[in-house]
Each structure stands twice: as structure tokens, then as C-alpha cells.
Amino acid sequence: MQPWRALALVCCALLLALVARFYHPGLGFSALIVLSEAHAPRRLPALRAIPHYEYPGDMEYDGAQYVQLALDPLLRDPAIDGALDAPAYRARRILFSWTAYALGLGRPAWIVQAYALQNVFAWLILAWLITRWIPLTSPRFFALWFTSMFSHGLLASVRLALLDGPSLLLLALAVAAAEKGRTWVMAAILGTAGLGRETNLLGATAMAWPRGWRGWLRAAAAAVLIVLPLLVWQDYVWSIYRGSSATEGAYMITVPFSAYLAEWRDTIAGLDRVDLLLIGRQLLVLVALTVQVVYLGWARKWATPWWRVAAAYAVLMFVVHTSVWEGYPGAITRVVLPLKFGFNVLLAQDHSRGFWGWFALGNLDLAMSVDALAT
Fold first, then answer.
1. Among 54, 98, 205, 315, which one is least packed by beta carbons within 10 Å?
2. Half-sphere exposure in the Cβ direction for 118 (13 Å, CA)
3. What is the pLDDT of residue 58?
4. Alpha-carbon span 273 to 139, nearest angstrom
5. Is the Cβ–Cβ distance between 255 and 267 less than 8 Å?
6. Phi, psi for residue 236 in degrees, rounded to 5
7. How many domains does the chain have?
8. Among candidates 232, 161, 175, which has minimal Cα distance to 207?
């Protein structure tokens, strides 16, 4: 076995060891889902009946919403309306609640464990899949593989049992299908991914530019296949919640560049504060994301599916609401995770002298990855 592959296996073992720290006898891996004691009274009865780990205080994360959806994946229990913070919005992102239900064989205690661990399964599969673009054959390729797999956004998804890691896996599979010219396979994967989160539909940019009228017809049919599952499910959600269920979460998109520039302004203004370490973390994220976008403009590899997908998420980065940026760092490293992966995949094809400069600046978020699985 080549030494870099062996080292990658060691890194995979390290990831599993870090995850194992969250195991509690009798409670399994439920600590990966951030459930708080303060929210226990409003929780779905099916979840209250299952032994699970609860954190002191009232801080919960999104995984607490989706694990409850996994226990009632067709929204039949009226209690779910009070258990979720935004039922119509959360219900639209149903895919990974369904997968947890299926992996847990419909048994509530197993479903909770399946939901907590499916990010880990996705991480391991992605660690293998990414070697399609970044083969583990040299120090340079290993560095790209490591910074991709141990990026802050991906590790945060594992630690908090979120949707971003599994979503990235589906996007990577869609890109692989697009590269092989398997339009229908790509469309089927993206149609499924759209049920996980709406932004996954940006993966449609991996589709090659159509040629001729037949190519346009095929592209149009593929586009229908991509959006149809989400439309059908949204119709079901609308039949329950009515009102504005189709536009729930639309406020997360704002005036282009406004939130991005505001974050730069606030970060620079905060450099003279006592909490310099926290401000510094956000500064590293801002620099890394900006460098990734600049590199896309410099490389201009329009014909490469990963370039197009990364560019789509670069656009998303510039239009997301300020709430996505809030924190040290905020959710932004997860929301635009495909940008980070696309950047590293494109760097793997770069043999210029500036490689290590782009690599170092574009992966500065690695500095925050150290504690992503620490607490």
C-alpha cells in the first residue's frame, strides 16, 4: 500500500476515534445531536420516550429538528408542529430524516442512532470518493485530501449531525455522473438531493452545456427530473401547512454582497477587541473563502463540472443572509462547502508555481477544524 493511502487510513481512524468520544452507555451516539434540557418539554413524545443525551442550558442546533422529523417522516403527529421551530421549513428538507428512518428500520431508538451517525457514514464514503479527483499518490495530493476531509464545514456537519455532509456526498456523486456523461443518473441524484436541502439543486450546474435541439430537450427533461421530487414533496407539505410554506426560509437570501461586505466590515472593526482570538477565526474564514472565489476567477475552467458547481456556491455565498455568517465561524463554512471541495479539486489539476500559496490561503479554515469535534 502506498504510504499516502496508509496515512489517509490513519486519518479515517482518527475521525472515528474522535466520534467515539461522544458515545455514552445507554444513550449511544445521541450526544452528536445537540439536544438541550430546556427544550425537553416541547419535544416530540416519541423522542422524549427514548433515552438520549441532553446538554444543559437552552442551546440546540438544527439536528434537533431533523431527528424529530425522522421519528415522524410523514408529519402525521400533530405534536410535531410544536416540537419544531419552523415546521414547514424543516419539513421541506426531509431526505436525511427519511434515510435515518430507513436505516433505523422504523424503530425509534435505532432511528435516533442512525440519524446521529449518518454523517459519519457519509464522511467515510466521501473520503474514498474524493480520491477519484485527488488520488493519494503524493504529499501534495494528500494535503488536498486532508484539508478537504478535515475542513471546518464538513467536521461541523459530523459533530452537529447536520445536512451538509450527506448533501456534499450526493453532489459529489452527481458530479461524477456528469463527468461520465450520465445525464439521467446525475438528474436522479440531484432530484433526490433537492429533498435534503434546496441549495443542493445548484448541483445542476454540473450538467454539460447542451448542443443542438436534442441536447436542449434532454437538458430540459433532466431539469424537470431534478426539480420534480422537491415540487411533489412541497405540495404534500403545503397540503398540511398551507400559507407561505413554499417560501419559508426565503429571507435567507438577501441583497448581493451586502452580508459578505458587512461581515468584512464588522470583522475588521472588531480586531481591536479583547476577544481577538474569536475575531481572528472569522478573519481566517473570510480570507479562505475569498481566496477560493478569486482562484475560480483566475482558473476559469468553465468546462469542468466541479468549477461550475463551485462557482454556483460562490454566488450563493454572496447572497446569503447575515445570519449565515454569524458566529466564530458561523454556518457559512457548511453552507458553501461545495465551494471548498471544488477549489481543492481544481487545485489538484494545477501545476503552477503558485500552487502552495493558493493552497495555504484557501484552506485557512483548517485552523478551526481542530476544535470542531472537540466539544
1. 315
2. 28
3. 84
4. 39
5. no
6. -65, -45
7. 1
8. 175
Dump the DSSP string for 88-140.
HHHHHS-HHHHHHHHHTTT-HHHHHHHHHHHHHHHHHHHHHHGGGTS-SSSHH
Q: How many CA atoms lie within 13 A of 27 on its CB side?
A: 17
Residue 374 within a domain: no
Q: What is the pTM of this model?
A: 0.95
pLDDT of residue 245: 66
Domain residues for 262?
A: 3-369
In-domain check, residue 263: yes
Give yes or no for a contact between 66 and 163, defined as CB atoms under 8 angstroms apart.
yes
The answer to whether 196 and 170 have CB atoms below 8 angstroms apart is yes
Question: For the residues of 259-289, what is the DSSP string, one character each?
Answer: HHHHHHHHHHHGGGSS-HHHHHHHHHHHHHH
Written as nine digits, the cell of 233 is 414533496
Residue 77, C-alpha cell as written in the block: 403527529
- 375: in domain: no
Tracing cell 449511544 back to the chain, one arrives at 28
Q: Which three cell numbers stand for residue 100?
A: 435515518
Q: Does a structural domain hold residue 62? A: yes
How far apart CA 116 and CA 27 sit, in angstroms, is 11
| Residue ranges of the chain with per-residue pLDDT less than 70 | 1, 244-246, 273-277, 370-375
What is the residue whose three cell numbers read 475560480? 296
Question: How far is residue 187 from each of residues 85, 218, 327, measured CA to CA in Å?
Answer: 31, 11, 35
pLDDT at 372: 67
Q: What is the reported pLDDT for 373?
A: 67
* Cα–Cα distance, 241 to 92 (Å, whole number): 11
Q: What is the pLDDT of residue 369?
A: 76
| For the chain, counts of helices (H) and of strands (E) | 20, 0
